[in-house]
Amino acid sequence: MVRTAGTRRAIEECFLAAKNECGLDQYEVRRYVGWYRYITSAMLAHALLAAMAHQVWEKGAAPVGQPGQSSSQWRGFG
Fold this sequence. Notes:
By secondary structure, this protein is mostly helical. It has helices spanning 2-22, 32-59. Helix 1 (2-22) packs across helix 2 (32-59). The chain is flat and about 45 Å long.
């Protein structure tokens, strides 16, 4: 039971990350087919982002998403 409870937490964290990074919760359901396509593409995008972050982590580079110096004129507005 402990292993199952630990798995549930990991799955919930995965869905939370997908909501924040890929807009998993932004779709308004009208029909099942459209919802299924949207959820599938959002989860695929999340899996791709996770795989890319893992590859960077394996190479020993700086973690993805660290803020750095930007020369963008829009940086002060955001």
